User: What shape does this take?
Amino acid sequence: MPRQLFLELEEDKRTRVIEAGLREFARNTYNEASTNSMVRAAGISKGSLFKYFDNKEDFYFYILDTVVADLFEDLSSDVVKLKGDLFDILVRYAEVEFSWHMKNPDKYQLLKRAFVNDSSSLYLKAVERYKLAGDSMYHVLMHNSYTEGLIGDKDKVVNVVKWVLEGYNAEFTRRNDVSDDIEGIREAYIDGMRQYLKIIRQGIST
Assistant: This one.
């Protein structure tokens, strides 16, 4: 968390620091991200940065917190409007989220880097830190969906879909490197998602 000194800065200076951190962490791995580059871009000294934050990791998670909060705030009004068939809602949400990514490429790159499973302590901290937020968004989607015609009660169906998509998301993220081609990634992701949802809808036995 930032120290009070950072929160007391003028808004434009805080914004410069946040934007400098976002660009650097989005375009480089955490280990490669340079605090020297960040402070130069922000127009502050390195000593000042570490008066605002305890260390590089503290600054990283502050930037990530900010981006995750922006994502959920920007999408919340769209999410509550998504109503209808469970599988259609999931695809429509993916399209809404990718539209946000395309409008915010640095934020997208940061999120993608943060959730590539490299088994690092940083990745594990990120997963634990944002699990509740992700679950909350998912359950809003599920609450607004209907599952008529599907076998089993709604909670069990929802859990099956959730577990499959969690696995799909992890594998897709692992296989697809961070890229500027967000549109290409969007198409590949949604196409793969549709295929898995079709299997679930139709069942896996004849």
Q: What stands out?
A: The mean pLDDT is 86. The chain has two domains: 1-54, 68-202.
